[in-house]
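Lab meeting prep.
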Amino acid sequence: MAETRRKHQTSTNQLLRTKLAPPRLPSALVSRPSLLARLDAGTATKLTLISAPGGYGKTTLVAQWLATRREPAAWVALDPSDDDPVRFWTYVITACRAFDPGLGKSALADLRTSKTPSFEPLLTTFINELAALPAPGILVIEDYHVITSSQIHASVAFLLDHLPDTLHLVLMTRSEPPLGLARWRARNQVVEINAADLQFSREETRTFLEQILRVSLKPETVARLDAQTDGWAAGLRLIALALEGKRDPSAIEQFLASRSASGGGHRHVIEYLTTEVLAAQSEALQEFLLQTSILNRLTASLCDAVTNRNDSASLLAQLEHANLFLLPLGEPEWYRYHALFAEAMRHTAREHFGAESMRALYARASAWYEQHGLLDQAIETAIAAQQFSRAAALIERSLDRRRQPEFYTFRLWVEQLSQEVFGAHPTLCFEYALALLFTSDRYAASTAAQLETPLRVAEETWRREDNSAGLGQVLALRALSALWQSDFARAFTLARESLQLLPEDDVFWRGSDLIIVGIDESLAGRMETAQNALI
């Protein structure tokens, strides 16, 4: 069994660099000077909040704006796996090193080495370093709506409260974040752009469509499209894709009439029009789109692995040229689909392929990720493929390489494993108990009771294996839990029993036990013995 202090190891080279750069601007781009001016004005405040449903062009607008600015910019594109405080701040601080390569070194070290990092002291150090920057910078956080962790929200609010003049924060989200923004609004420290602001005007609708279709549209046709989409960029792009190749005004009007009959809101529109767009593609391209829709980010070799093809590079180039909702990322030869388009594609893929074939796609993706050292992505796709035994083995490997206690992410993974698989991995059982302790109310009796089920499984297995080091860790964790339950007599007894079993090089758990023993000795008035225990 790997030593506990070697667990949770990861470094910034395990981060997906494609999440740390804005997408490249599309060829069809509508100039929006009034919105760019509002973004310019926002730099005099703490925060620019861009809040609108998917498909309104938030990302394109901010990428377009950054291209006009001279300040250095840091970009973080979030996804649901970032709803873990350690992972979130690792990405954000790493992104900010675009301002200065040495920035955040201490904060990142704390995130890597501490089992329970305290975010306010960590962020205080980071904020002080930001304040010392010689020139201002812009931090963009995309898709903040995927964050649900109250600890992340609290720490972002702390950053906002103490944001230095050298940093301006831009948050893109589909819903207003719970960051206590009222006081900043009252102080005019927030510039807000919402869905109504992002809607294309009729003239912008005309410009956008004519750029893509390369044909002049009648005013009444533009007016009809504008009324049908309410200036929704994603709907307009899908309509344009469905109209591609049609140059006869009567054919366009006929399509629009059929579109009107479909009715429904944005979700219905995107499902309907995606079907239209898919039908217009070759059979090979349709298959490629559906198979690769499972991927958050795409590159040719990954797509080849998932689709069992060898021409993904040319297909990706074809999709990019066709503006088919494929966004090129800052990293060369990496892309991602527009979120709404990918969602609709995945829905269609599930209906088209069936559950077994979808699991096979995820399994091939997982194998590629593993081969390329991207264990987090390998784990998540193995779970999606329902390869639970393989996922468990990958999670154990990730523990050996990881110093960062991404307890929320770890819990999410483990809680998706089948009980049978979970029980066959005592290390995961022990680490799960540890994660429960540090992500729950450690003072609650219910938390202590919850730890016992996974701890008993680990204990029974390690007892059969005569693994004294593992048994010592189980006792040490129980001692720590008992201490927080104020069950001091039990904590002191368990800590002493644990020390008899733990190897000398298990610094973390021996240290935990010695602190508890030191408390016992000091309470008994044996100060010299207590001091010796704590040295």
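Slide two material, second protein:
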Amino acid sequence: MKSLWSDAEAARFATDAGLRVYTSRLLGRDATLVLHGGGNTSVKLKQRNALGEEEDILLVKGSGWDLETIEEAGFAPVRMAHLTRLARLESLTDPQMMNELATQVTRAGSPAPSVEAILHAILPYKFVDHTHADALLAVTNTTDGEHRAREIYGGDTVIVPYVMPGFDLARQCARLFAAESGPGTIGMVLVNHGIFSFGGTARESYERMIALVARAEAYLARHGAWALPQPKSDAGAQTLRLDLARLRREISDCAGFPLVLATHAAPKFLDFARRKDIVTLSQQGPATPDHVIRTKRIPMLGRDVGAYAAAYREYFNRHAPAAREPKTMLDPAPRLILDPEFGMGCVGRTAKDARIVHDIYSHTLDVILRAAALGGYRALPERDIFDVEYWDLEQAKLKKAGTPPVFAGEVALVTGAASGIGKACVESLLHRGAAVIGLDVNPGIAQLMGARADFLGLRCDVTSERELADALESGVRAYGGLDMLVLNAGVFPGGQRIDALASDEWRRVMRVNLDANLALMRECHPLLKLAPRGGRIVVIGSKNVPAPGPGAAAYSASKAALTQLARVAALEWGADGIRVNTLHPNAVFDTAAWTDEVLAARAAHYGVTVEEYRKGNVLRVEVTSRDVAELAAEMCGPLFAKTTGAQVPVDGGNERVI
């Protein structure tokens, strides 16, 4: 633990609210303190209302905001007077509590206040920070964790045995804080949950958090439980894509909707999955109960989805009858898998969700190993984990959740994805919720969409069957399978009459436009056959198929052959639930091939303006890459669910075709 405070950075934040934003971001920068929306922070202020009255306000982190990127708008301003009165109640259900909090927010449009707002309000400090520090969890998630916490923190930190977050936790903390705190109190440990720090300034509260967590790190080091073993396992070079696609299909069927399966074969995860004591270490529960919402209580060991689902139903049936409110069972599919061949598998409705599972369990694994070295990892009893997983507030979120994007949980592959129609197809598919694998010979494909979790750009020469196989393996390891294939990569050679067409040029065009697509379709067939909602292929053909022009023999013939190949595939693969359709675009000018100079030259050749040339079709409209991509994406969607073998023009109407 090191303080990240910078006087130069802090100087940009002139107010207490601004400094609250700044130190919240400092906490959020450190993944060993908080992950993906975890933790919360607050500051107590005085604000004047519209009537000129001064009110005490708690500015507390709002639901849905991440500390690393939070803005001042991410904090909810709540009237302190009402919060402190609520804290004196004997009981209050959490839904009632959240309703009360919502009625006391002073700024319209603010996010919902943190569920721990009352707890922040009753702590008698201006600034309050709360994290789920890995080091602290490694100490408290042991058989004698509470005793160890008292040993570390002595008299300046209040120790609170585990209580479920919400109103009951606020009440328990208020009682213990009143009994055990003193003038020198700087923090509070919630066993199996996290740690609080307090201060009169933003810097004081933040740096106290750093110091408190550093004590836990030092304790672990003194007891030989800080340094983690160096991972040694090697994933090897085995091909797993078909096995992973089958596993993803089983998990998706179990859940009732498509899911992404992201696998991680880093030595750290392989070592853990191959441990002899993996059952003991992994089947107890999460490091902190908050994580159950993302990971479920325990990971699946191996690949028996049916057994995992049956065990989950038994877990639900054991605890649901004792709940205060009727519970609706979540889907029983795993969200986390440990397997000796592929290491760790992370499951999510989106690639981002799967990445969050990865980040959480990567830190959980460190907590488990350190706790084991300290004397034995021990998670909370499963009843406590169930209570958080089926918390009234979480159940309410599920009921309010909107319809997911049409391709949520599905995976698409686009060739020629770095520019033009291919790039537009990537964007259209991402917009509809798909995870997308983009292939292109241009190395820039890797950075095409930045660092998004739902895009994997791979440099690939589609004429190389070895590179295609490697790309498919990488893509399936990243997302678990394949649902949609957009065959877009192609070359359009310069105009050349047949009597001058060299055999090498003919073969080059056929290799890219036809042979590569045959190889890719063949290799993708077993993956598409396992798509939870059936496989879909969209072939980007050309107007030259129904209406060829002089000087384009190789291009026209290759696209015609590809179209015929798609028609045959539609016939052969319909029984496998795979539909195959073709688009025939024409005069798509927003691509790298059509520079301003080329457009001007072609327009001059025909004696028209550039604008007239762009719109030289029956409808007098310009056809863009996005127009083609949007139709390609729609052809993968439910509107075309009963269409296969179709050929659809995207050309504004071409007289020769019509």
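Talking points for slide two:
Residues 590-622 form one domain.
The CA atoms of residues 89 and 171 lie 9 Å apart.
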